[in-house]
Amino acid sequence: EAGLVEHEHPIFASASALLRQSLEENVVRLVKQVELGLADGAENVDTLKEAEDEVKRALGAARAAGARAPQLAALERLWKRVHNGVEDLADSIRVFCRIRPFNEAEACQNEDRVASLIDPMTIEVTERRDDSEGK
């Protein structure tokens, strides 16, 4: 149907050609941006997720604009690469330690607090000095 409209109305053919050219330019720009981010070793999951979302949007726009299979294949490969980068980075985040809260019994025995919570992702460890052992 889109082909009929383009043949019947030259203005639509011109608009369609401009849209395809703009799409191709945007895809090239997006590929370069994502490649640079991946080459720089993007270590922020959120940054990679944003790139993944942008590639998904570009892929949807490309399909809607009637992009050809090679263009779609390039975007799909790019999306897969970014998606895998997100998964790899997310998988590398692990719990390094767990600290139970300071309890009442420890407080009654005048135990020292050796760690305190700074924020949900950060703790502060207090160095304990035991003068009797010279440490």
From TrEMBL:
SUPFAM superfamilies given for it?
P-loop containing nucleoside triphosphate hydrolases
Spell out the protein name for this chain: Kinesin motor domain-containing protein
Any Gene Ontology biological process? microtubule-based movement
Protein species of origin: Zooxanthella nutricula
Q: Which family does it belong to?
A: Belongs to the TRAFAC class myosin-kinesin ATPase superfamily. Kinesin family.
Tell me a Gene Ontology molecular-function term this record carries.
microtubule binding
Q: Where is the Kinesin motor domain?
A: 92-135
